[in-house]
Write a structure and sequence with these properties.
Elements lengths: L2 H9 L4 E5 L5 H10 L3 E5 L3 H8 L10 H5 L5 E4 L10 E4 L14 H13 L5 E4 L7 H10 L11 E4 L18 E5 L2 H12 L5 E3 L3 H32 L3 H8 L23 H9 L7 H26 L9 E5 L14 H11 L3 E5 L5 E2 L10 E2 L5 H6 L2 E4 L8 H7 L3 E3 L3 H4 L7 E3 L1
Parallel strand pairs: 1-2, 1-4, 2-3, 4-5, 5-6, 7-8, 9-10, 9-13, 13-14, 14-15
Antiparallel strand pairs: 6-7, 11-12
Helix pairs in contact: 1-7, 5-6, 8-10, 8-11, 11-12
């Protein structure tokens, strides 16, 4: 198998691109490859999602439908996976969640790899982008793909390139974020480099697929550990009567040796709450305990419970308990100005509130409906309008996501009591006796 043939097709934009999983990672990739002039087939098991995309409609709020419709002549969404045999470069962007025991759930990667294996052709490039533990590509996937006799590095190309998406980020996009790339062999790496060089400003080659898998884990573990540190300090400083937000602002005035991380009600999104546990799980195979990572996970996982405890203390001052209290939650998405609810701490906090007997409503301008989460099947709610009556009728207004669309002065004026987990009110110039930080 000659690498030059596929590289020439890529450079001439004649290579066909297939992207499996048209979500927060896959869809931006579709757009970039279409913009570069490639023919892109998008694969997804969700027929409703496929139907929308065929009509040029985006189902992700921060991705404008115009970006889909503008490139629709190059984009072919489908749920027919037999078309994989017609594709030159196949990129896998499927979820890698945790199971109920907080262990890696590899169902999506394994089932997708098995489907590819059924249609695998000589000369194809297979790239995994999903975050996972070191060894997934060159051990697990390779074995599955080689079951029918084709050999990685000889008959087809195999690679790993971790996604680096940050939904709705303004200063970086899919094309401007440097891309870490790797290959099972040097030939695999060369083809992978040609592919991603066609859509991103810079590729960063590493020595192996395991190195690339580990790079992604380091990026997210770094954030998880530092967020855990400020979360722990927040709880300590709260007891000491010290404002963690003031401390961070003062500390970041140092022009070197300090990077600001911010506390919150818990970790959210598909990466930081999940990825560290992939390495923790894999480390057991080597008789190694990742104590630092596990401690960070313990602290971050505990943050929703801290918020509930804080709410209880504030209610006690007015002679009330959580049981029977009316709580209005602001923000269901895991971060500001997106509709992404994956692993949002709001889900856990609402579940705990309901278990405590509280009456809970929520408002989120980006999330009109919240339901269908496999670990939160008891949550099936609609966002309510943020009116004077709704605000004044709640015993506590609990801000969990600091969306830019919120009119913070209006909320402060009409709420009885506010618990702010993001320091949003003070950042918007509002200091009030009604507002408690948590």
């Amino acid at each position: 198998m000659e690498k030059s043939g596929l590289i020439d097709k890529i450079k001439s934009k004649k290579a066909t691109i297939g992207i499996i999983g048209l979500g927060y990672v896959g869809l931006p990739l579709v757009i970039e490859f279409c913009k570069a002039g490639f023919s892109v087939t998008g694969f997804d098991v969700d027929n409703e999602k496929v139907a929308k995309l065929k009509h040029g409609e985006s189902y992700i709020k921060h991705i404008d439908s115009k970006l889909i419709s503008k490139n629709i002549s190059h984009f072919f969404p489908t749920s027919d996976f037999s078309k994989l045999s017609e594709i030159d470069c196949i990129i896998i962007c499927v979820p890698t969640p945790l199971n109920k025991n907080r262990e890696p759930d590899m169902t999506y990667i394994y089932s997708t790899t098995k489907t590819i294996a059924q249609h695998l052709q000589k000369g194809q490039l297979i790239v995994l982008e999903s975050t996972t533990y070191p060894g997934t590509t060159d051990e697990d996937m390779k074995v599955i793909l080689e079951e029918k006799g084709l050999k990685a590095g000889d008959d087809f190309f195999l690679a790993y390139s971790p996604e680096r998406e940050d939904p709705n980020r303004k200063d970086f996009s899919t094309s401007t974020i440097p891309k870490v790339i790797s290959g099972y062999t040097e030939k695999c790496l060369a083809v992978t480099k040609a592919l991603y060089d066609s859509i991103v400003v810079k590729t960063v080659s590493v020595s192996s697929t395991r190195a690339a898998e580990a790079t992604k884990l380091l990026e997210n573990i770094y954030r998880a550990v530092n967020i855990a540190m400020v979360n722990e300090l927040k709880m300590l400083f709260d007891r000491m009567g010290i404002d963690i937000w003031e401390i961070i602002e003062a500390a970041k005035s140092k022009p070197f040796g300090f990077e600001a991380f911010y506390p919150g009600p818990g970790l959210g999104g598909h990466c930081i709450p999940i990825d560290p546990f992939y390495l923790t799980w894999k480390a057991r195979e080597y008789d190694f305990a990742t104590r630092f990572i596990e401690l960070a996970g313990e602290i971050n996982t505990n943050m929703p419970y801290y918020v509930i405890q804080k709410l209880g203390l504030i209610l006690n001052r007015t002679g009330k308990s959580l049981n029977g209290s009316k709580i209005l939650v602001l923000g269901m998405a895991y971060k500001k100005d997106v509709d992404d609810q994956r692993e949002s701490p709001s889900l856990k906090i609402i579940q705990l509130l309901k278990q405590s007997g509280a009456e809970v409503q929520y408002n989120d301008p980006y999330v009109p409906l919240c339901g269908g989460h496999r670990h939160y099947s008891d949550i099936d709610m609609y966002s309510i309008e943020l009116s004077k009556e709704v605000l004044s009728g709640a015993d506590i207004t609990l801000l969990l996501t600091d969306h830019s669309l919120y009119e913070y002065a209006f909320i402060e004026k009409h709420s009885k009591c506010i618990v702010d987990t993001r320091n949003a009110f003070e950042r918007n110039g509002i200091k009030s006796d009604k507002v408690y930080k948590a």
